[in-house]
Amino acid sequence: MSFHRITHNEKYRFATLHNYGCMFRCPVCSYKLHSGPNGRPGYAYPKPDGFLTTGQIKEALRKVDIATLYFMGGEPTMARNLAELLDFGKNTLGARTFLGHCNGWKLDLPNLDGANVGLKAWDPQVHRAYTGRDKELIFGNFRRAFEAGMDLKANVVYVPGLVDLDQVEAIAAWLGGLSRDIRFHIMGYIPVPGQPYARPTKEQMAQAVAACRRHLNQVGMSHLTSEEARHHAERDDRFAVRQIA
Question: 165-178 and 202-212 helices cross at what angle (nearest 10)?
Fold first, then answer.
């Protein structure tokens, strides 16, 4: 698939390219909260009516002031024109390029400054059942990107009964082995209809943060309800964007 929408935040001087589709098949993906009646397995949003050409994307980006160009999904590294757009963003617009969130499937990309990588599970069998993909590739890609000097953040969705506290802490311990200064964010699972897992309690979230801080210096968390997740902009003006294409 490819990019179908561009948003712009004037205050913070960033634009975001939104891709459709993902090679993972995560049944608890929070994007499924937005899928509506036309959602497809593996695709959290209904399929867009159309996709933007590379030329349309470049034209729209030239018209706005940006310091950072984000790429998001679904999974942005699925886009066939990503390499060209990374080159355009960094070398023509002079912007910092960043995968606003990604699954770590591909990080060795020229002109990419940084990425926020969702590490799904520590246990290899759970990772395979969760995503349909092997853990070793994802964690190996993260390590290689870190060692190459890429600006990396990591996050995990805490799903009691699937990705339990021991797995969350094991991921933090692995990251801490690379550097205690890697930024790590724990997201409380937002229940997806049709799935058997419950949202973690406040106490469970506090325990997870405390456990991860034994390994990392910068540990944050979010514990949103499904309603709060749908209305980010009301609480955080970084999400107050306008669509430009």
Answer: 30
